[in-house]
């Protein structure tokens, strides 16, 4: 219980630490990937290789990946780097004090990150899908990177080799609330160096990664939906039976 409470506090601190951006427009995440086993398997691979170095998923066990079609042998040979047993949780070996010194804050647990990021601007999956594709070079930052969705984020762009390096273009405009002030408005990205993947390919990879993060927040969500549909069908049939029985029992009563 203490671990769950601590994880929720870390996620809340991360959300509270982000600067509010009322004009933020999130890209729509392709939700069909959450039920695509191939996409989830690829997302799990990306998560283990790029995210699990710093971020833990302390409430997800490796053997749960069997629910997305992976065998225990595949998990051990391809995804099990931080521990020896598939029954262990997805923890990291990085010391929390070192992480805070390097990044300014301890990287939060990602088990529930997709659920915690939902807001009026869109779902948590929409947020993550936009965030992972919005890094740009910024020499003023300690890591050399910044993010349009989360300004001054402490996280570096760990996927830059896939996406390449980009610069953000801003224009100065009058503040609509105070004509005497100027504001910097984001106008777009400029590609500085090519990555290993073309932009559509990178977007597809990020969609798979976010699909896995969305699934990890509630691994039984697909089963829950199927059970819910079955219950509604049962209640509908039972209603018809009860209605006809009621009519039969009371047909002679005037």
Describe this structure in words.
With 254 residues, the protein is α+β, with helices and mostly antiparallel strands. It has one domain: Cytochrome c-like domain (Cytochrome Bc1 Complex, Chain D, domain 2). It has nine helices and six strands; from the N terminus they run ααβαβαααββαββαα. It has helices at 2-17, 37-51, 72-78, 96-103, 113-116, 124-131, 160-163, 199-217, 221-249, and strands at 57-61, 89-90, 135-137, 145-147, 164-175, 178-194. The strands form three sheets. Strands 1-2 form a two-stranded antiparallel ribbon. It has a two-stranded antiparallel sheet with strand order 3-4. A hairpin with a 7-residue loop joins strand 3 (135-137) and strand 4 (145-147). The radius of gyration is 23 Å and the shape is extended. The protein starts with a helix and ends in a 5-residue tail after the last helix. Mean pLDDT is 88; it is low at 8-22.
Quick tags:
254 residues, alpha+beta, Cytochrome Bc1 Complex, Chain D, domain 2, two-stranded antiparallel sheet, 9 helices, 43% helix
